[in-house]
Design a protein that fits this description.
Elements: E1 23-28, H1 29-47, E2 55-61, E3 65-80, E4 83-89, E5 93-113, E6 117-140, E7 146-156, E8 160-165, H2 170-200, H3 202-206, E9 212-214, E10 219-222, E11 230-231, E12 235-240, E13 243-246, E14 270-275, H4 276-288, E15 293-297, H5 311-315, H6 319-324, E16 330-336, E17 341-345, E18 348-362, E19 368-387, E20 390-407, H7 418-439, E21 441-442, E22 449-459, E23 462-471
Antiparallel strand pairs: 1-12, 1-14, 2-3, 3-5, 4-5, 5-6, 6-7, 6-8, 9-10, 10-13, 11-12, 14-23, 15-16, 16-18, 17-18, 18-19, 19-20, 20-21, 22-23
Helix pairs in contact: 1-2
Length: 473
């Protein structure tokens, strides 16, 4: 389990820039408490590495006179952290408080007194009432990822109890009076540096945040931070860029994100808000890459369909086609004319597209002869869902509006082609689009992060994803 894994839930912390986010993330108290449970194991392991130096000295013990003592080979056997709390520090980060902890160890003892008298044996020792309070600041590094550091730490070691194996009862008084203080001081000096090391060990884990996540061969999405975290007593809100780019070509779209904020939530550990800006930046990128176009041929139409892509079928609606180009197969090119527009309204995600459809007759020598160009205005409804660590979707056709752009075969009634093109969209274009959307695009993630109990709502101008989190390694 990664060190102080609750820091993984704090991996969505933004930089101090003055731009609106495309994606917002809210970490709730539930998420902090889950992270604390995981992190305690890491703190415990750190404290088990405490090394206790040999303690020796010389004291006068009545009626024995001077007694020289040594405690050596002390080893930590167990560390217990029965009570711990993690609290948000508004404007700073969070505070970890550990109380009623204990450290058990064993070692060897020996004493020398009355010049020639010696005694030795072993002992078991438990330090109780150990308290640790550390405050941790959250900032950002040059890559847009979070980094943490401890800004204060106090450690208090309470009482110690020891059980000697061998020796006389006066050894207990010797320990209680002279050794107890030295041992507690030795422990206190090491605890806070070890806690600081544990905090530093978070940072390599935080660097796994996918600030630039590849989607496919055309696009990547950036999750760098765009503003400082907003820390309240109940949650931390983080602002991420959430913008798609063409791979290797980070060109800004002709629109920018609008400000939005997430409503108060307490049910889940983590909430993602994905804005329409993020979705529309994806549409801009894919349109710019030239991949929002599709050639449709007859072999893509189900064999059971009575409508074929040939001049005979289209000649039934446009007689000039079958007269000018009898017995030829046809090809359609569907291509977006402008960037698709994606809108989110409560319980409704819609994509509107303006496209052109160019129909060609395929000549015997395979050259293409243009027949006509139609303007196609279409609207689809999208069902959005979370699949693994990705946001995926599927669309259904709402409506189609066809108008004539250019005709190379004379005038004809475009309305007569409505059924053909609705069939082409439903049987060919929509399934192709859904196959792409089903692959999804990656959400912000850290390490081996898994989302569970996930729910998604479409709200005005953004989608809200509520989820719990598990870390598998």
């Amino acid at each position: 389990m990664s060190v102080l894994v609750w820091s993984a839930l704090l991996a969505f912390i933004p930089l101090s820039l003055s731009i609106n986010p495309g994606v917002m993330v809210k970490l709730t108290e539930e998420g902090l408490q889950y992270g604390k449970q995981l992190g305690m194991a890491s703190v415990q392991q750190k404290l088990k590495t405490i090394t206790v130096p040999d303690i020796s000295g010389e004291e006068r013990v009545n009626p024995l006179g001077k007694v020289r003592y040594t405690l050596s080979n002390m080893k930590i056997m167990d560390v217990g952290l029965p009570q711990s709390e993690v609290d948000l520090l508004p404007g700073t980060g969070f505070r970890l408080s550990i109380s009623n902890a204990f450290i058990s160890m064993n070692g060897n003892w020996k004493v020398k007194y009355l010049r020639l008298m010696k005694d030795h044996g072993s002992f078991d020792l438990t330090v109780n009432a150990l308290t640790i309070i550390t405050s941790i600041a959250i900032k950002s590094d040059e890559t847009g990822r979070p980094t943490v550091s401890d800004i204060s730490c106090t450690a208090t070691v309470g009482s110690a109890s020891i059980k000697f194996h061998g020796g006389a009862s006066w050894l207990y008084n010797l320990f209680k009076k002279f050794v107890d203080k030295g041992l507690r001081n030795a422990l206190q000096k090491q605890i806070c540096p070890l806690v600081a090391d544990a905090v530093s060990d978070m940072n390599p884990k935080l660097k796994t945040l996918n600030v630039l996540a590849k989607v496919d061969q055309y696009a990547e999405i950036e999750y760098s931070m765009v503003s400082s975290p907003t820390v309240s007593p109940s949650s931390i809100d983080f602002s991420l860029k959430g913008e798609f780019y063409n791979i290797g070509k980070h060109q800004e779209p002709p629109f920018s994100p609008s400000a939005f904020s997430l409503p108060p939530q307490v049910k889940n550990m983590l909430y993602f808000g994905v804005s329409t800006f993020t979705a529309n930046s994806a549409a801009f990128v894919y349109n710019k890459a030239g991949v929002l176009s599709l050639y449709i041929t007859d072999d893509m139409i189900p064999k059971s369909s009575p409508i074929r892509l040939n001049t005979r079928t289209f000649g039934a609606f446009i007689p000039q086609i079958s007269k000018l180009y009898p017995g030829l197969m046809m090809k359609l090119l569907v291509k977006t004319a402008t960037n698709p527009l994606i809108t989110f309204q409560p319980n409704n995600a819609t994509i509107q597209t303006s496209s052109t459809v160019t129909a060609y007759a395929i000549q015997p020598n395979a050259t293409l002869t243009p027949l006509f160009v139609l303007n196609l205005e279409s609207s689809v409804s999208a069902r959005v869902f979370v699949s693994g660590m990705s946001l995926a979707g599927a669309v259904t056709l709402n409506k189609v509006d066809l108008t004539l752009g250019t005709s190379y075969v004379g005038e004809f009634q475009v309305k007569s082609l409505d059924n053909i093109f609705q069939m082409v969209l439903k049987l060919v274009v929509i399934p192709k689009l859904n196959a792409k959307l089903a692959k999804g695009y990656p959400l912000p993630a850290l390490g081996k992060m898994k989302l569970v109990n996930t729910q998604l709502q479409v709200l005005k101008d953004y989608m809200l994803i509520g989820t719990d989190v598990q870390f598998t390694g």
